[in-house]
Amino acid sequence: MPELPEVETIANGVHQRVVGARITSVWTSGKPQTFKTPPAALEAALSDSTILEVKRVGKTIVMRVRPESAGDAAPLDFLIHLGMTGRLVVATPDVPPPPHTHAVLSLADGREVRFVDPRRFGRLSLAAGTYTGPGAEPTTIGEQEFIALFRGRKLAIKAALLHQSLLHGVGNIYADESLFRAGIRPTRPAGRLTRAELLRLREALRAVLARAIQLGGSSVSDYVDAEGMRGYFQIEHAVYGRGGQPCKTCGTPVKKIVVGGRGTHYCPQCQR
Questions:
Q1: Does 262 map to a domain?
Q2: So which residues are the catalytic ones?
């Protein structure tokens, strides 16, 4: 599933290409499991609207639009959750739509914004008001707010990092990489980490996410950006996906275990 850096990369790429563009019409496949808002309602709301912004909130791409008929009414937030295999790409009509295309926004200049999702775990919907996401934003969260998130929690810190109502956007890859950078074992109860450890984890998390965004995310499956290009952060993974391989820091074999139902990678020597 695309995580925060991948979603950020896609949202930024789409924003650069379509901000200010007018949506003239919307086509939807009508396939089940893709639409949280009925397709007819999506088509009516988005057709003849101007794209004001495309951004990331948590793991969701938010396309803010202003319908031409809205007058002084508030803009609408069109939410695109990529699920496991979703992609959002900008293309010209001469490029054949790939299989499993479930929505196409036709723009006034002839280009198209296409939502493609082979496994149909993604979701398209309209938000009632401004969408803010389920939890705190990990790239900007302050020290005291971060510490307070985990106070008294019995969850393993790896599971707590994945809890979207606490921090939205963090997924398996970046939880593992951040815990490694902070030197914290993923199985430790979140509520028993010291203040110093939590501050170290906050800095590690922000640094890992920033570096991953810089490199366009991690392409460990079928993730590509708005132009169909792969990311490069997977080249720098210290532990994720490296079970049994030597730690890049100390040479100890990286262990793979299950924490909170998720495959988890860590170095038993570097992480305590």
A1: yes
A2: 2-3, 59, 262
3-state secondary structure of 187: coil
pLDDT tens, N- to C-terminus, the chain (272 residues) = 788 999 999 999 999 999 999 999 999 998 888 899 999 999 999 999 999 999 999 999 999 999 987 666 789 999 999 998 899 999 999 999 999 999 999 999 999 999 999 989 999 999 978 999 999 999 999 999 999 999 999 999 999 999 999 999 999 999 999 999 999 999 999 999 999 999 999 999 999 999 999 888 775 555 555 566 656 578 789 999 999 999 999 999 999 999 999 999 999 999 99
Number of domains in the chain: 2
Q: CA 189, CA 168: separation in Å to the nearest integer?
A: 20
- Considering the entire predicted model, what is its pTM? 0.90
Q: Which two tokens stand for residue 3?
A: 């995580």
Assess whether 122 and 149 both reside in one domain: no
What is the spatial distance between Cα 221 and Cα 64, in angstroms, rounded to a whole number?
Answer: 29
